[in-house]
């Protein structure tokens, strides 16, 4: 890519290209091993331009985490249809989650493997995770209300169930991305079989099965 | 602790004291922020002695990971009684897991938060995690056999269920350690309610409940 073409491109577009290259490099190499040279080359720009736009490797990584976390939460929120029963909302949310993590494996690796436990960056991912836990907690509360079982599910039990479900989803997403042929729909169905039938038993004693009308 | 007392203590005992101090420091501060000065002071020895015995911060961290991973797997294996039905084996295994992570919060933080995604160390934790996933996979296979449902649970579904269960347990252990008053037994019961009732539905369509005779 020549210098003339570089200058014609709006800064916002150029930045997104740099971040695409950065997410791919961070996701595949890890934060420590990823080099700014490689990111610049993959983005088709000079290294000084990456520093000019995104300041430092640390700031670039933070920008990647924010973009990927926002996109993931947005994908899950968009996937859920609010007026459906709680189990169907969870099913749609899980399908959206696993579809997004399957389509963005490097972004998921950045969030789940690279950023979550790296000290200066973990807070960004923790905030995203808490948003998803709160969303799942709300679904369980609504499900309990629908089943008129609120008094049988104390707040702490609901919080624990939401943590378990989110942990299971994280683990399955990493597994599905590392397992050739594992589809997002299969991962979502496995987790519904595992989780909702259990939650459903807690609520009403009946098993959950995926809706026959939904295919992906 | 004086120099004379130091010299009288066998090397193996001294090393364990250094590793106790290291696990506590790594678990609470994080790998990067932990200093060898602090570890030596907490262990009541000189810093050169830590280097003499355990070579480097990296080697000390690796030794901590190995010790904590071995202890965790050993605790789970010891907790499980092989001749019980699969759901009871899982219940005992989960109780042993959550009891161990509650009693060793710094060791769990080292494994789950510090080591799992840090590039030179992740392989140690991955090996431990794979051993636990294999153990859970085997429990699910046995449960399916007990219910004569093998053909309905293809190998990939079982693998996905095991990954979901382990991810849920990891997430709940971190949550329980961060939540005042959350007990190991409660965490295990929450996960059985969440997971086994679901798995049980997959197998036989009946809910799981904790055995009335078991208290801890």
Summary, kept brief:
Two copies of one chain form a homodimer. With 216 residues, the first copy, chain A, is mostly helical. Chain A is 75% helix and 0% strand.
The helix content of chain A, as a percent range, equals over 70%
Oligomeric form: homodimer
CATH class of the largest domain in chain A: Mainly Alpha
- Using the CA coordinates, give the radius of gyration of chain A: 20 Å
Q: State the distance separating the first and last CA atoms of chain A.
A: 38 Å
| Low-pLDDT ranges of chain A | 205-216
The figure for the number of domains of chain A is 2
The description of the largest β-sheet of chain A is: none
**Silhouette of chain A:** elongated
Structural class of chain A: mainly alpha
Secondary-structure element pattern of chain A, one letter each: HHHHHHHHHH
SS field, number of helical segments of chain A: 10
CATH architecture term of the largest domain in chain A: Orthogonal Bundle
Q: Overall mean pLDDT score of chain A?
A: 83
Query: Biggest interface in this structure?
Result: A-B, 44 and 44 residues
Q: In the CATH hierarchy, what is the superfamily of the largest domain in chain A?
A: Tetracycline Repressor, domain 2
GO molecular function, one term (chains A, B): transcription cis-regulatory region binding
Domain HTH tetR-type (chains A, B): 12-72
Keywords (chains A, B): DNA-binding, Transcription, Transcription regulation
Pfam families (chains A, B): TetR_C_46 (PF21943), TetR_N (PF00440)
């Amino acid at each position: 890519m020549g210098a003339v073409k570089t200058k014609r491109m709006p800064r916002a577009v150029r930045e997104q290209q740099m971040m695409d290259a950065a997410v791919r490099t961070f996701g595949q190499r890890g934060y420590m091993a990823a080099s700014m040279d490689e990111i610049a080359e993959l983005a088709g720009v000079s290294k000084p331009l990456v520093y000019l736009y995104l300041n430092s490797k640390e700031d670039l990584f933070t920008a990647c985490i924010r973009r990927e976390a926002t996109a993931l939460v947005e994908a899950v929120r968009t996937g859920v249809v609010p007026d459906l029963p709680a189990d169907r909302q969870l099913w749609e949310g899980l399908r959206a989650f696993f579809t997004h993590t399957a389509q963005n494996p490097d972004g998921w690796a950045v969030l789940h493997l690279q950023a979550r436990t790296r000290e200066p960056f973990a807070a960004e991912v923790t905030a995203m995770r808490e948003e998803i836990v709160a969303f799942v907690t709300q679904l369980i509360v609504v499900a309990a209300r629908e089943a008129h079982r609120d008094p049988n599910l104390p707040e702490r039990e609901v919080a624990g169930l939401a943590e378990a479900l989110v942990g299971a989803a994280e683990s399955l997403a990493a597994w599905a991305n590392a397992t050739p042929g594992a589809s997002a729909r299969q991962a979502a169905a496995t987790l519904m079989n595992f989780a909702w039938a259990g939650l459903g038993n807690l609520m009403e004693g009946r098993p959950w099965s995926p809706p026959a009308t939904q295919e992906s």
